[in-house]
Write a structure and sequence with these properties.
Layout (H helix, E strand, L loop, with lengths): L3 E5 L12 E2 L3 E4 L4 E5 L5 H10 L7 E5 L7 E2 L6 H24 L29 E12 L15 E4 L6 E2 L6 E9 L4 E8 L2 E8 L9 E8 L5 E2 L1 E5 L1 E4 L5 E2 L2
Parallel strand pairs: 4-5, 7-13
Antiparallel strand pairs: 1-6, 1-16, 2-3, 3-4, 5-15, 7-10, 8-9, 8-11, 11-12, 12-14, 16-17
Length: 253
């Protein structure tokens, strides 16, 4: 019988996994003296295989994507070799029967189709790529906590980076001042920029309106304020529970 299950982490751990010793399966936590299995990059099949092969499911400490808590998994039960053999024999017999019937049927004679002669023209196709005017400038920004009007001071966000539409790569934000600088190339009619802030296992997507007319000496100075509570958890870690959907009981760590 097929068993389906979901995963849960009721009490996420706020320990910094990046500061832990890395292992082949994830991390080792000195505080708990436990291995933290990193399942955040695993496929549904790999997670199902891991749960199937783990005997002590009450003591699993894992790192997961928050989206994986919404997924449904299936226990991979071993295949019965006798049932598998019966199935293979039945399939082989079915294929053999179908082949005999098909061989006894008369084949339909092929009908030759004659197409009218077609004429072709040779030459080069001219295509003019539409051009879009762009502007390149340096955005000097400052990220502040909307509540304190200072740089964000939260142990969860020890190192915040930001990726902005029009940039080649993400840049780090200074933890003490909240300042950052990045070169952007955007269309001249741009009125809004998309920002992706990320730190450890948290992220925040926001759009900000800009006025390119305020560019002075190839530089645009802007200050951004955000509420740390708006950050979303991308990954969480902690004692993992396995909830079977076809049972009323569940195992938690």
């Amino acid at each position: 019988m097929k068993k389906t299950f979901k995963l849960e982490i009721n009490a996420p751990c706020d320990a910094n996994l990046e500061a832990m010793q890395k292992t082949t399966s994830g991390f080792f936590c000195d505080s708990c003296a436990k291995n933290v299995v990193d399942l955040s990059g695993k496929s549904n099949y790999e997670i199902s295989k891991f749960i199937t092969e783990t005997k002590d499911r009450d003591s699993i400490c894992a790192r997961l994507k928050t989206t994986q808590l919404e997924e449904e998994f299936s226990i991979l039960e071993p295949i019965n070799p006798i049932s598998s053999l019966k199935y293979a024999v039945a399939v082989a017999a079915s294929v053999l029967l179908s082949s005999n019937v098909a061989g006894q049927e008369k084949s339909t004679p092929a009908v030759e189709q004659v197409r009218p002669s077609e004429s072709f023209a040779l030459g080069k196709i001219a295509y003019q790529q539409p051009t879009q005017k762009t502007v390149t400038f340096v955005l000097k920004g400052k990220l502040l906590d909307v509540n304190t009007r200072k740089a964000i001071d939260d142990k969860r966000f020890s190192k915040i980076s930001v990726y902005i539409s029009g940039a080649e790569q993400a840049v780090d934000i200074h933890p003490k001042t909240g300042e950052f600088s990045v070169s952007l190339t955007v269309p001249t009619n741009t009125k809004e920029l998309s920002f992706n802030f990320s730190s450890n296992d948290y992220y925040l997507d926001k759009n900000y309106k800009i006025d390119l007319n305020l560019i002075r000496k190839n530089t645009l100075n802007l200050t951004f304020s955000i509420d740390p509570k708006d950050f979303m958890m991308l990954k969480i870690a902690g004692g993992m529970g396995v909830i079977f959907q076809n049972k009323t009981t569940k195992t938690n760590s």
